[in-house]
Amino acid sequence: MPFRRSSEEEQVAGPACMHLRSKGMYMTGKMTPSHEVDGVGDGYCWCNRTQKQQGPDSQWVDRVNCVEGRECFETIF
């Protein structure tokens, strides 16, 4: 299955799930998996709980979808 990249036009409100991960966050140290800054990372996201591109609820993982209201969502704060 090819990876999904969030569209840059999609706006996200609220915090991301604490289990959302991206390559860029490990390179920049910032929790911004959807819009990698300065070309760092490739937008690839995964769930830290499943270690896959789908969360525990079998839905796709990315900054747009991993928000409050999803059954597996856990807030960072």
Please give a structural write-up.
- By secondary structure, the protein is low in regular secondary structure.
- It has one domain.
- Helix content is 8%, strand content 8%.
- It contains 1 helix and 2 strands; from the N terminus they run E-H-E.
- The chain has a two-stranded antiparallel sheet.
- The radius of gyration is 11 Å and the shape is globular.
- The mean pLDDT is 77.
Major pleated sheet: 2 strands, antiparallel
Radius of gyration: 11 Å
Total count of helical runs of at least 4 residues: 1
> Average pLDDT across residues?
77
Name the helix and strand elements from N-terminus to C-terminus, one letter apiece. EHE
- Judging from the principal axes of the Cα atoms, what is the shape? globular
Helix content: under 10%
Give the CA-CA distance, first to last residue.
Answer: 32 Å
Structural class comes to little secondary structure
Proportion of beta-strand residues: 5-15%
Contiguous runs where pLDDT drops below 50 for at least 5 residues: none
Write down how many β-strands occur, each being a DSSP E stretch of 2 or more residues: 2
Number of domains: 1
Oligomer: single chain
Strand order of the largest sheet: 1-2
